[in-house]
Specification:
The complex is a heterodimer. Chain A is an alpha/beta fold. Helix content of chain A is 13%, strand content 28%. Classes of the chains: A alpha/beta, B alpha/beta.
Chain lengths: 232, 221
């Protein structure tokens, strides 16, 4: 029995990988949830592309302010020491290499670190990219947070991306429900695997070629309830 | 005496012509100059190009311009947002042109226009479909894409406080694209929640200096 993490636990795992003092941008979707799992007492300054440094989750029961939102247009709150600025400054921070880590979602991650996360094939709807392409090259480290396999079982970490790229050779580390995988010069290295998972099975569930680190660890997280299913 | 304050919202948007390139502040609904956009839509302009991060939502603001058949083209980074039904429908019917631009590149293209820089090179979009057809140049061993400035005819922005010279301040993250749009157009029109006397905004606190603003109109906050 493989003890896969739920999405909240993956957010916890990502948050615990970020050092004190880091400036961190969170992409829309699953990554925004990382904000909820910052370890007690660790100071991390979160950047939101729409001109915010020092955001924190909206306190429970607090009145949302429509003028204070994150990249996903959800209401947030501010830490003392936070700052507002306009969009050109915000993306100067991104493009200029001032963001230590960004956390993005993915449709596909290639073995060489290519990322595809903005355009699905065979869709009539308009393409939308937001700040993902700026972050893919601008942030010093690009963390990816995604399910290891899609609903149809297809791996998200593939030999080569087939979807339109967001950025080439830009991914640093991938956090999934069953593994933490780092991109090294010589390929994809498994740093952590879920309890009960054999390397052979992980490789079978992955398109890219993997190598198991000598000092690999078990991927664990505290007991956190999964996100509530959203009504469709 | 310099006085950029307009008495009515109709006066503020008077003179905006068909075919104009309109820079619109806001990120989602935060900072979107809804009152100015609604007043513009009431004039039934045609063939506008709207430059904005999103393509509106609901039936007000940018949504109202789309529903009124006023828009020919969008230049934006993320047209698909919850409630962007007007955009989605017309786009899928082939009635709207879209130039998709990464968000930071969008901001910088407009800032560049305001700063007198016709183009710039950026890593953003290298090796992606959004770089197709654009010049790529190598600097210190890395590829960069040439992006050109976007010059607006008119910018519509939303601010919290303004004065008769046109100095502006904003509320929290509703600042977003507004100061950038204010730089990039020939005429910048600001809707503000409050007008104060000169000096009512401390020089240290001015976010958009008066030089970038041509008209100010107070609307109900």
């Amino acid at each position: 029995m493989v003890e896969a993490l739920n999405r909240n636990q993956v957010a916890w795992r990502v948050a615990n990988d970020i050092d004190e003092g880091a400036f961190v941008n969170l992409g829309v979707g699953m990554p925004l949830n990382v904000l909820n799992y910052v370890p007690e007492g660790r100071e991390i300054i979160f950047h939101s592309e729409n001109g915010v440094l020092g955001m924190k989750p909206l306190e429970e029961g607090a009145e949302p302010n429509l003028d204070l939102i994150n990249a996903g247009k959800q209401p947030i709150s501010m830490l003392p020491g936070g700052a507002f600025f306009h969009h050109s400054d915000s993306f100067a921070m991104v493009r200029g290499g001032h963001i230590d880590v960004c956390v993005l979602g993915a449709y596909e991650v290639g073995q060489n670190g290519d990322l595809a996360n903005w355009r699905l094939p065979n869709t009539k709807s308009a393409p939308a990219v937001g700040g993902a392409m700026d972050l893919a090259y601008g942030a010093r480290q690009v963390y990816i947070m995604c399910d290891h396999n899609g609903r149809d079982g297809a791996p998200k970490i593939v030999k080569q991306c087939t979807l339109p790229l967001t950025g080439a050779k830009c991914v640093t580390k991938v956090f999934t429900d069953i593994a933490v995988i780092e991109r090294a010069d010589d390929g994809m290295v498994v740093r952590e695997m879920a309890e009960g998972l054999e390397f052979e099975e992980l490789q079978e569930r992955t398109g890219a070629e993997l190598r198991l680190a000598n000092d690999w660890k078990t991927l664990t997280a505290p007991d956190i309830a999964p996100p509530e299913k959203r009504a469709r | 005496m310099i006085n950029k304050i307009c008495q009515g919202i109709e006066d503020a948007v008077a003179g905006i012509e068909d075919g104009a390139v309109i820079l619109v502040g806001g990120f989602g609904n935060a900072g979107e100059p809804i009152a100015l956009l609604n007043a513009l839509a009431a004039r039934k302009p045609r063939e506008l190009t709207i430059v904005s991060n999103n393509a509106g939502s609901g039936d007000e603001g940018i949504g109202q311009l789309i529903l009124g058949g006023c828009v020919k083209k969008f230049i934006c980074s993320f047209p698909r947002v919850t409630g962007a039904d007007a955009f989605d429908k017309m786009y899928e019917e082939g009635l709207l042109e879209l130039e998709l631009t990464p968000q930071g590149t969008l901001a910088e293209r407009i800032r560049a226009a305001g700063a007198g820089i016709p183009g710039f090179y950026t890593r953003t979009s290298v090796d992606t479909p959004l770089a197709e057809g654009k010049e790529v140049r190598e600097f210190a061993g890395l590829d960069y894409v040439l992006e050109e400035a976007i010059y607006g005819d008119v910018a519509l922005v939303k601010a919290a406080v303004g004065d008769r010279w046109g100095n502006l301040t904003y509320t929290m993250s509703s600042r977003n694209f507004n100061p950038v749009m204010a730089m990039g157009a020939k005429i910048t029109i600001a809707q503000v929640g409050e007008i104060v006397d000169l000096g009512g905004i401390e020089p240290e606190q001015v976010i958009t200096p008066s030089i970038f603003v041509d008209k100010v109109v107070q609307v109900e906050a």
